Amino acid sequence: MAETRFTNDHEWVRLADGVVTVGITAHAQEALGDVVYVDLPAAGRSVEAGEACAVVESVKAASDVYAPLKGTVTDRNDGLSDDPALVNRAPEQEGWFFKLRLADAAAFEGLMDEAAYRAFVESLA
Length: 125
Known about the structure:
The chain is of the alpha+beta class. Helix content is 21%, strand content 37%. It contains 4 helices and 9 strands. Strands 1-2-3-9-8-5 form a 6-stranded antiparallel β-sheet. A 3-stranded antiparallel β-sheet has the order 4-6-7. β2 and β3 (19-24) form a beta hairpin.
């Protein structure tokens, strides 16, 4: 079973076999409103942790999506081009953005677990 962690930029990160799947949290998509466009990184692109590598646009605003960890993009969810509202309908499942092969799999452990993320979100209210 894949383990999920979270960033303070409201991305979720799910690890399976040295590759993480990245998307935005339900909290983030609720704050954005109706998503109308997503720009994703190309497969093969190397990214540093914290680097802006995708953009999500909604009726309210445009926001960067940051690489949660250092790695190389292995895949992207091209289905979001045709149906960006999938991010609203299933932000932590089918609405994923991209996948990364991690440069350092141990870095995943430094991200927040679900309880820590929930506490972080509550602290923002």
